[in-house]
Amino acid sequence: MITVEQGEQLRAWFAERLPVDVYESLVSVTADREEITVVGTVAATESVGEFRERTRDRRIEVAREAEELYRRKVAWGVRTGGETTLFTHLAVPVMTRLRQSERQVLDTLVAGGVARSRADALAWCVRLVGRNTEAWLADLRGSLAEVHRVRAQGPDVSGEPDTAPSDPE
C-alpha cells in the first residue's frame, strides 16, 4: 500500500507525461505492490475500443517509462458515464490458508454456480466486502496514512549515540 503523498506524486507523474489528447481528464491513479492503474474519462462519442486503438502507442511509451521507474506493471482504464472499464490489468495469485468452514463457503459458491472455482469464489467475496464496506475501508486507509506520517516523524533509532549536551546538574 502506498501513502497518500506517494499517491499524489504518482498521479502528478502520470499527469505530466500523458499527452493531452489521451484522456479528457485523469480520474485516478492507484497502486499496490504489483501494479499501477491509470483511469481517465473519454469523450462520450468514443468507444473503449476506439480509445484503446487511438492511444495505444502513447500509452505503451508512458507505461514503459513508469514500469522502469516504479518497478510495477501499468494497467489502463476508461470511465464513460458511470461505468469504468479496465484493460491490460493483472490478475495476481494470492496464497492463503483457510479453515474448513471458510473453504465450505467457497465450495457453496462454486456448487451454487456463483463462481467457477474456489479462486473465483474468493475474488467474488473480496469484491463483495469491498463494495459493502467502502466507507470503512476508506477510513482504514486514512488511518494507515496517518501511521506512516507519524512513523516518519519518529525518533532516529539508527543506534547513533545521543550527542545532546548533558544537564550540568
Mean pLDDT: 88
Secondary-structure class: alpha+beta
The low-confidence parts are: none
How much is the radius of gyration in Å?
Answer: 22 Å
How far apart are the termini?
48 Å
Helix proportion: 40-55%
User: Which descriptor suits the 3D outline?
Assistant: globular
Q: Biggest sheet, in brief?
A: 4 strands, mixed
User: Can you write the helix and strand succession as a string?
Assistant: HEEHEEHHH
Number of helices: 5
Strand order of the largest sheet: 1-2-3-4
Brief sketch in words of this structure:
This protein is an alpha+beta fold. Helix content is 49%, strand content 16%.
Structure write-up:
This protein is of the alpha+beta class and 169 residues long. It has five helices and four strands, in the order αββαββααα. The chain has helices at 4-17, 48-70, 100-111, 118-132, 134-152, and strands at residues 25-31, 35-41, 73-80, 83-87. Strands 1-2-3-4 form a four-stranded mixed sheet. Strand 3 and strand 4 (83-87) form a beta hairpin. The longest helix has 23 residues, at 48-70. The mean pLDDT is 88.
